[in-house]
Amino acid sequence: MAVNRTNENEGFLTSRVDALFNWSLKNSLWPMPLGISCCAIEMMAFAGPRYDVSRFGAEVFRFSPRQSDLLIVAGTVTYKMARVVRKIYDQMPDPKWVISMGVCASSGGMYRSYSVVQGIDQFVPVDVYVGGCPPRPDSLLKALMEIQKRIQAGETLTQQRRPEKVLVD
Amino acid sequence: MANSSRDKDNVAQIVRALEDKDTSAALEDPLENYMVLNMGPQHPATHGVLRLLVKLDGETVVECIPELGYLHRGYEKIAEASTYMEFIPHTDRLDYISPIANNVAYALAVEKIAGVEAPPRAQYIRVIGAELARVSSHLMAIGAMAMDVGAMTVFLWAFREREKLYDIFDLLTGVRFTTSYTRIGGVAQDLTDETKQAIGKFIDEFPHHHAEIIKMLNKNRIFLDRVVGVGAIDAETAIGLGFSGANLRGCGIEHDIRTFSPYLVYDQLSFDVITEKDGDCFARYMVRMREMLESVKIVRQALERIPQGPIKADLPKKVLPQKERVYEKMEELIHDFVIVNDGVNPDVGDVYVTTEGSKGELGFYIISDGSGHPWRMKIRSPSFCNLQALPYLVKGQMISDVVAIIGSIDPIMGEADK
Amino acid sequence: MIEKIEEKLRAALGENIISVKEFKDQVIVEARRDAIVEVCRFLKEDRELEFNFLSDICGADMLNFVDSSSRKAYLAVEHDYHPEEVPTAGRFMVIYQLTSLRNRTRIRVKVRVDGDNPVCPSLTSLYPAANWYERETFDMFGITFEGHPDMRRMYMPEEYDHHPLRKDFPLMGVPGSIPLPRK
Ligand code: SF4
């Protein structure tokens, strides 16, 4: 977007539609907080008074996947839960992004056991991985900013050109 | 399907009435069928990944079947594969609202079977940590319950207080959230003066904020209508169903492991065991509210009486030496190496040690074969046992009360699913 | 305390009590499997003992359980090590933790369950709380409780074939035993 001021009195605005679209989209992400375990508490802190995610326009937590465009998987995903996570992801309308919060969701973390999926990227595409057990709310904010950066950079309307994955830690 | 014969009868009756032009025909219960509703595992009011299958007649719950296991992480199997020391970080994530209380419970269980006793200063520090954890857990319980019945403000207030507690945990243990604070035979770091001051400041201010919440909720018509008389249970059924902790005390039973079989230094501190008689959601809420003040009282006494001295027992074969000494002394280095690799080798046998966790009776049952790994470790998690009463509590209530009841039981699925 | 319990139990139940021990101040009663309901009923209904609260039920797999100190002693004198195998006749143990809220005491009752036909009588008629504890034990060890109203798995998916806490089950599970959704 640019403001063109060739003549002092006749300024006009140039932009592409998708730049405008991306700009508005990135500042009004509606997260779907999939709080499964301990990380969910830090995710609540991220929405809470101190870290206050509304500064980034993403405070509208929607508990219905159909109204949201950012899936935050916060917690340990077990095999039993995997189907649910996938279903929620499928229900979300495009364009959509996924943050894998915490080492559990990203790689199975400290649970090398028979019931825990060793990384949710085995069944949903992940955009940003956040390290930490649990990540501090700041890291999650950083992840949100990464998503915003990607929205600004990517062609959201088609969601074709996805930049590579990001790791925040 | 089961009603198909009745349907046929109904259809026949309607046809007959039409043929007779009898307009007064009444079916004997035209809408007699149930709806089965699925709540969860991803539902904001189920506090994590609890799934409920609710059978409804209109809006009344006829039957409810909880389905667990969406967060079953295999703790007991992991414990068998790790040394006693290695399991401490896992205890944080059991009841992740009050990690220190779990650390303490686990350390006590291992100490019992290994025959170690923590020095007095460590015991006081543990009491302080566990009670602050209880406050933070109850705050969460109340905030979440209030949010479930529609009072968002209390949730934010509770979180504001919890953030202060997180800062204290940060000072005390080095992290906000997953503390891993206790060691077998003591605690990881000492309580510094700075931490002491921070705790002192918190417990001075807390009663004021506590009163705010009370003021907000206890005379609030909407809140009262949603919780008073909802989800009531009598004492005998509650005992039969394995209720414990604040939930059981809400039914008028004075059962608190801190006085039942005192551990740490609880027998030297004075506090009341809070009970309420009604056994409904409001009683459970009130028990939690009042218990927070008792916890603050305990912390205050503990801060006054805490003695100087070591924070780890002096038993080189069982207790990890202080890190600074490991870098300086050969023996300490060897002991550190042996304990980390071989583990604490306790006596052969089995013990069941319980503590009053934030949710109720938190027990660890350990069978040891004398090696560094537990042969079998069972976690008696209070949330699991409390949840068992849920089908009983919601029976005959409205569907919208189910969320209030779940909130009042305060289950944490990390612990319930293990 | 322990003498009194032992005396009472032996008087009332005789042969069904195998041993009464004390370890680290905790009372442990070993009973015969088929008599577990009677033993618990006695402990619950006796006026003096009154163990009215069932804290927990858990299973344990004692496959090849040996005291590791004897293992070490063997190794020290360079013997070939032959662990005395626990015969399948007593492979599993089911452990009941009872509490008396009034007397402020605890007791632990253990029974042995065979490995080839793991069944055990259910306590649900006595303590409603046993319901979920027994389901959990079934899920983890495959011990079936006779007379249980709803013997299903507690944690693992219904169609799962294995019992994770058995000692012969690997920590990382059986690959592919639970399908993941397609990407
Ligand atoms: S990453 Fe750590 S804090 Fe987050 S869910 Fe996993 S264990 Fe819990």
User: What hetero molecules are bound to the protein chains?
Assistant: iron/sulfur cluster
CATH topology of chain A: Rossmann fold
Q: What is the first-to-last residue Cα distance of chain A?
A: 32 Å
Q: In one word, what is the shape of chain C?
A: elongated
Give the integer mean of the pLDDT values of chain C.
80
**CATH topology label of chain C:** Beta Polymerase, domain 2
Can you write the helix and strand succession of chain A as a string? EEHEHEHEHEHE
Based on CA atoms alone, the radius of gyration of chain C comes out at 19 Å
Biggest sheet statistics of chain C: 5 strands, mixed
Any overview of this molecule?
- The model of chain A has no long low-confidence stretch (mean pLDDT 80).
- Chain A has five helices and seven strands, in the order ββαβαβαβαβαβ.
- The two termini of chain A are 32 Å apart.
- Helices cover 33% and strands 16% of the residues of chain A.
- Chain A has helices spanning 17-26, 38-47, 79-91, 102-107, 137-153, and strands at 2-4, 12-14, 31-35, 70-74, 97-101, 128-130, 166-168.
- Chain B is mainly α.
- Chain B folds into two domains: 2-67, no CATH class; 75-416, Orthogonal Bundle (Cytochrome-c3 Hydrogenase, chain B).
- In chain B, 51% of the residues lie in helices and 11% in strands.
- In chain B, β2 and β3 form a beta hairpin.
- The two termini of chain B are 38 Å apart.
- Chain C is α/β, with parallel strands linked by helices and 183 residues long.
- Chain C has helices at residues 2-13, 36-45, 68-76, 130-141; strands spanning 17-23, 26-31, 53-61, 92-100, 105-113, 119-121, 144-146.
- In chain C, β6 (119-121), α4 and β7 form a beta-alpha-beta unit.
- Mean pLDDT of chain C is 80; it is low at 73-86.
- Classes of the chains: A alpha/beta (169), B mainly alpha (418), C alpha/beta (183).
- Chains in contact: A-B, A-C, B-C.
- At the B-C interface, α2, α9, β6, β7 and β8 of B face β3 and α4 of C.
- Bound molecules: iron/sulfur cluster.
- Residues 37-39, 75-76, 102-104, 109, 133-134 of chain A line the site of iron/sulfur cluster (SF4).
